[in-house]
Amino acid sequence: MATLPADAPTLSKLEWQAVAIGLREVDGCGCGSIEPPSRFRRLWTTLTGAEAVRPLADPRLEALRRFVCRLRRSGEDVEKLGQELIALGYSRNQVSAIAALDRP
Questions:
Q1: How many helices and strands in the chain, by DSSP H and E?
Q2: Quick one: which of 78, 59, 96 has its CA closest to 70?
Q3: Domain tally, the chain
Q4: What is the pLDDT of residues 24-60, one digit of tens each?
């Protein structure tokens, strides 16, 4: 079995699931806009059952989900968006690998 280099951009199964959630939700989420529900939002949820996207419980995984979503929606600079992930302990290689998913 081949071994990966020490700086290989590996992610855990949960981290890849957070990436998948971000990719799946990109069209319908607020991409990081976590607001308290307004009266209108609560009424809308009551009437339709449609709820706003809730953040993931783990802050590292939520940052990963938001990164993927925002990168895909806004096309913001990877360096700018990746700073939060790097501050949370992800490597530059991991951030670059995730950002590469957005390229055609």
A1: 5, 0
A2: 78
A3: 1
A4: 877 665 554 445 557 777 777 778 776 666 778 889 9
